Every structure is written in C-alpha cells, then in structure tokens.
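User: Could you go from structure to sequence for me? I need the amino acid at each position, not a summary. Structure tokens:
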C-alpha cells in the first residue's frame, strides 16, 4: 500500500531566494514530517509588483538555492503558465498531479496573513491544503479567523527587498543567500 505523501508548498517571487526561505522550508519539513517541499516561483504575483524582474533568472536562482537538498524541489508550473499566478490554480494542478490522497501544506510567513482574505477562492484554497504560518520578525501573529498550523522558526530578519537594496548599494550579501546564488547575482549583474 502506498504511503500518503505529505508535501510542503512554498510559493513566492524568490527575487532572490535567501537563507530565510531555506530555513523556513527545512523547519516546516522537519516539524511536520513532510516528504518534501516544493518551491514554486511565481510568474506574476497578484498582490505585488516585481522590481528587477526576470522570471527565468528567479527560477535559476531558486534551483541553485535548493541544490543539494534532496527533499527540496523547484517547480516551473507558474512560470510556464505565463499569466498572473493564483494559488488556487496551482493547488488544483498539484492535487491532479499528486492525487487526492496527497496532503498539501501551504507554507507562508506571518507577513502574508493580512492579505489572506483577499486571495482568490480562499475558501477552496483552505479545503485543498493545510495552511502553515511561520512567525516572521516584526509581523506578530494576531488572532486568526481561519484554521492554520502555527510554526515557530528561528527569527531571521532577511528579506529579498533588503538583499536587492544591498546589492544595488554595493554592500555584501554574503551569508544572506546561498553562495551559489550570490555568485549568480554577481555574474549576471542583477539588481544593479
């Protein structure tokens, strides 16, 4: 008999992916005993404008960031659609690919909670997945109207925005992103 797969889903712009993303994914993987975490770079997010965008570069950096961890995968699904990326569409597709028996865990940070009610088809999203919310510095978890799994992760006050600013201002990003991502950013002169 096949074991029910427990799959974490971590979507985002990953512009660039950083150590905070990796720590978050690994902590949730460990604490919820997941089989794997799928990183899904968004093509065009509905809630924010992407600065310095090249979807292919973000995908390549996410691949580099996840390389070496056999429990991390990177999906091109949203990039290949080439439209606004709604979580509900991605989750429906993942349910088709992995079957109804697969348990999907949608991972997000506490900074995204304020936007939750504005998500397309949020009621269906919450039927398809277990929603996992991790603490983020400066974004305390307030009273929730929805059932979610709260996870404590080491507080790393790192953001892609901060990394882009540091690169733009010729400041070091060493140890904030995986070394392979740092070299990729330098080689391709991203965020200058």
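Assistant: Here is the amino acid at each position, in order:
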């Amino acid at each position: 008999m096949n074991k029910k797969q427990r799959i974490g889903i971590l979507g985002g712009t990953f512009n660039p992916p950083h150590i905070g993303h990796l720590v978050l994914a690994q902590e949730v993987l460990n604490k919820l005993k997941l089989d794997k975490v799928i990183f899904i770079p968004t093509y065009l997010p509905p809630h924010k404008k992407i600065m310095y965008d090249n979807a292919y570069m973000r995908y390549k950096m996410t691949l580099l960031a996840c390389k070496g961890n056999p429990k991390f995968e990177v999906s091109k699904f949203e990039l290949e659609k080439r439209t606004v990326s709604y979580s509900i569409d991605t989750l429906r597709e993942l349910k088709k690919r992995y079957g109804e028996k697969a348990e999907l865990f949608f991972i997000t940070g506490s900074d995204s909670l304020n936007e939750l009610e504005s998500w397309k088809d949020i009621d269906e999203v919450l039927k398809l997945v277990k929603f996992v919310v991790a603490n983020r510095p400066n974004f305390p978890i307030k009273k929730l109207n929805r059932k979610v799994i709260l996870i404590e992760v080491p507080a790393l006050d790192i953001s892609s925005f901060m990394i882009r600013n540091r690169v733009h201002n010729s400041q070091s990003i060493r140890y904030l992103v995986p070394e392979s991502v740092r070299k990729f950013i330098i080689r391709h002169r991203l965020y200058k």
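One structural detail worth keeping in mind: The first strand starts at residue 6 and ends at 12.
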